[in-house]
Design a protein that fits this description.
- It is built from twelve helices and 13 strands.
- By secondary structure, the chain is an alpha/beta fold.
- The strands form two sheets. Strands 2-3-4-5-6-7-8 form a seven-stranded mixed β-sheet. The chain has a six-stranded mixed β-sheet with strand order 1-9-10-11-12-13, covered by helices on one side.
- 41% of the residues lie in helices and 18% in strands.
- The chain is globular, with a radius of gyration of 20 Å.
- It starts with a helix and ends with a helix.
Length: 369
């Protein structure tokens, strides 16, 4: 019982910490550019579970376990290599390196200095003296908090929304990951750096015989999600817009002023990519997939949207919807990872489709029990 009390106290401390957390216009050379509130506290049951796990993790620094594994480097299409997250290791993303005759583009850095250093060394080996570019699928720490390692050695390219979101939310996410996810060592000498080139909606990079398209659509997983593709080869890189064999990650964190996730736009982006019939789909986390993974993700999001809408119309409150719908979704995909995120997904759909989330006070209720 004392362990439970201590765990709940640690969770309270985690939530308290969250509450306290506070271009260029023209592009030359091979890059071508075309311009085209906090609402309420998040539902406390998933937060309690997550905060407890964070509190436990905080007792040990896990940074060495979160370094990208270069043994997982594989060529998934001609000139397209992925350092693959085959085993769904938390905080270890897929990192993609695209090689042309004149340059190499790196997509995402891994979490912190050591992962980024290994990625850079791999890129330099593939480049053999060619020019280097770096871009990130979105601003979250495991995807872009190694960009400082590349600064001055590669040309950094972000869309404007992603750059602005990094500047606004980056420090709070750094604190959250360092203090509550047990990776302070990975981020201790990380520093925020600005991109060398900023684009608005769409850009292309000619790497020399291999053209890469960068696209920013609209708010989804984050405000600045970027879809990176090699259209001629049917390769698409989605970051956390897709996790293969996994429930989606809905970052809804009022305590650090991040409630911008938009599932309606998110679903539209996935369906638009699905219509291009890609051959190789590289997710943010999990094994490299195919267009079928996009189809499954869209179908899942449609299910959640329809079920939440129906249950709201019948008068169910958020807590009841989460209680009834969570096991149904788990049963549909019993082999999917990240089941703890289902409640957050339902919360976001409820907020967007049925009005703002209610103040449920469930943290104190669970603590008393």
């Amino acid at each position: 019982m004392n362990d439970v009390v201590n765990l709940i106290g640690a969770a309270r401390a985690a939530i308290s910490t969250w509450r306290s957390a506070a271009s260029r216009s023209f592009i030359q050379g091979p890059l071508r550019m075309s311009l085209r509130r906090p609402l309420a506290r998040l539902f406390m049951t998933p937060v309690l579970v997550w905060a407890c796990s964070l509190a436990l993790a905080a007792n040990k620094d896990l940074s060495r376990e979160k370094i990208v594994d270069l043994d997982h480097l594989t060529e998934v299409s001609p000139g397209v290599h992925v350092i693959e997250d085959k085993d769904h290791v938390v905080l270890v993303p897929n990192v993609t390196l695209i090689t042309g005759k004149d340059a190499v583009l790196v997509v995402d850095t891994g979490l912190g200095t050591e992962s980024a250093r290994r990625v850079l060394q791999t890129a330099e080996r593939l480049a053999k003296g060619k020019r280097l570019y770096l871009t990130t699928t979105h601003f979250h720490p495991e995807h872009g908090f190694g960009a400082h390692v590349f600064k001055g050695k590669a040309t950094l390219i972000y869309n404007r929304a992603q750059r602005d979101e990094l500047l606004k939310k980056g420090p709070a996410y750094r604190r959250l990951f360092s203090e509550r996810l047990g990776v302070a060592e990975a981020l201790k000498d990380m520093r925020f750096v600005l991109p060398d080139i900023v684009y608005e909606r769409e850009a292309e990079i000619d790497l020399g015989g291999r053209v890469v398209r960068l696209s920013h659509h609209q708010p989804a997983h984050t405000l600045g999600d970027q879809v990176v593709s090699v259209p001629a080869q049917g390769v698409v890189i989605l970051g956390d817009l897709l996790e293969t064999k996994s429930f989606p990650i809905f970052p809804w964190f009022p305590e650090i002023e991040d409630t911008d996730v938009d599932p309606v736009n998110w679903r539209e982006i996935l369906q638009a990519v699905e219509r291009t019939q890609p051959k190789v789909v590289i997710p943010g986390h999990g094994p490299v997939g195919t267009a079928r993974d996009l189809t499954e993700a869209v179908r899942h999001m449609d299910t959640v949207r329809d079920e939440v809408t129906k249950r709201c119309s019948s008068g169910q409150d958020l807590a009841s919807i989460q209680k009834d719908l969570t096991p149904l979704l788990r049963a549909q995909h019993p082999d999917w990872e990240l089941q703890d995120w289902i409640a957050n997904e339902i919360l976001v759909y409820h907020t967007r489709l049925c009005g703002s989330a209610s103040e449920l006070g469930l943290f104190d209720k669970v603590a008393r029990e």
